[in-house]
Amino acid sequence: MLKISVLVSGGGTNLQALIDAQNNGILKSGKIVQVISSRSDSYALERAKKFGICADVAEIGENFESKILEHLKKFNPEIIVLAGFMHILSKNFIEQCNAKIINIHPSLIPSFCGKGFYGLKVHEAVLKSGVKITGATVHFVNEVPDGGEIIAQKAVPVLPDDTPERLQRRVMENAEWIILPRAVESVCRKINSIFPYPIKYPGRGIITGCTPSGKIMLAYFIMGRSQSSKARIFERSGDDLIIKLTKQDKNFDPSLILYSPLRMLNGNLILTNGDQTDTIYDFVKDGETFEEALRTREYEPDPPHFTPRISAMINKSGYKQSILKKAGKYFFEYEFENGKGHLIHTYDHDVTPDKNLPSFSGEPREIKISEDVEEFSNSLWNELDKNYRVSLYVRFYDSDFKSYRDKLFNTNAN
Ligand code: GAR
């Protein structure tokens, strides 16, 4: 769960919209942990306290930004939301706070924005100009006031008898309070997500790496389209993992769907999407290497896809991954880097599951690993399409690389 600090200056109706969104489940990938106000009399502080959120004040004046940074240190939030915050933050501040900063602005940027355009002044300028449409914009903050990348916008009509106050209220109700929580959720979800891209049918996938504190981890998932492929479950067998069928089906090649995805040999964990697990196991047992084993194998004999064979081996000194596909045999070797891992899957990321399945392209994708096996495995499982996901196994070792915590998901009951 990402931590969100909200910076405010006034009434805090946008803060309230974020709190409401958190309470009704629209904002679920991040949690508001702190509100910092630039005014000690701002009503936003009362709103925060009412919901048990830490409320801090950094009054405008000398060392204004350092005071905010001091308060932020308490939580080290990944996200900072400027919700009715009436000050421009310096480049130096933005660089120092090490978080994504999101702002809500009450106009359609690039109109009526930048220095001097804040609060009611924006709506006064809109009315003076005679435009018939205004709105609100949520954007990332950079060193240019109201100049960062736009995340969301919503238009609102300007009506003939509008006053700045009436227009402000309409823009808030019909745009700001709607788009701000949704935009914050979508940014949090993107940061939290394991796949670096939206993905429909990755097929089978392997992740190896280590947690932020350096604990070794691995994950393996399978997805399926055919009945026989879907009728599978993962089961632990000692420290190994096996696949079983929930229904018997005579029309399939069992060697391609029933195999040991995970086997352990003298401190080496071997993880693959086929019976090449056994090939690697036998070679390594005889003193030969991961690469030597896989050079004797090739992609799967399942035209028209010719599904790649993906494999990994992980031990105390690092991990290797490989993909054997029609285009060639590829090997990758990594040293551990805290909080990072690599993901390789069988099919390319923009695959539509009812079409032919092109092989995974490029190198294994670097991904972020969290410290908590529950959190990591739940987000991975949730990112796999419900119509195709079959099983997932995740293991996080303790620092001794002997004991571990694991999590197993099966769509089918055993
Ligand atoms: C909102 O309209 C917000 O978009 C605007 O101030 C108002 C604050 O209301 N922010 C800016 O103008 C920032 N440049 P609130 O305190 O009730 O959320």
Topology:
Layout: E1 2-8, H1 13-23, E2 30-37, H2 43-50, E3 54-57, H3 64-73, E4 79-82, H4 91-96, E5 100-105, H5 120-129, E6 133-140, E7 150-157, H6 164-192, E8 204-210, E9 216-223, H7 227-230, E10 232-237, E11 240-245, H8 254-257, E12 262-265, E13 268-272, H9 276-285, H10 290-295, E14 309-315, E15 318-325, E16 328-334, E17 340-345, E18 365-368, H11 373-383, E19 389-397, E20 404-410
Parallel strand pairs: 1-2, 1-4, 2-3, 4-5
Antiparallel strand pairs: 5-6, 6-7, 8-9, 8-17, 9-19, 10-11, 12-13, 13-14, 14-15, 15-16, 17-18, 19-20
Helix pairs in contact: 1-6, 5-6
Bound molecules: glycinamide ribonucleotide.
Descriptive account of the structure:
Helix 1 crosses helix 6 and helix 5 crosses helix 6. With 414 residues, this protein is α+β, with helices and mostly antiparallel strands. 26% of the residues lie in helices and 31% in strands. It folds into two domains: 191 residues, Formyl transferase, N-terminal domain (Rossmann fold); 206 residues, Inosine monophosphate cyclohydrolase-like (Glutamine Phosphoribosylpyrophosphate, subunit 1, domain 1, 4-Layer Sandwich). It is built from eleven helices and 20 strands. Helix 2 links the parallel strand 2 and strand 3. The mean pLDDT is 94. The protein has a seven-stranded mixed β-sheet, sandwiched between helices. Strands 18-17-8-9-19-20 form a six-stranded antiparallel β-sheet, with helices on one face. The longest helix has 29 residues. Glycinamide ribonucleotide binds next to helix 1, strand 5 and helix 6.
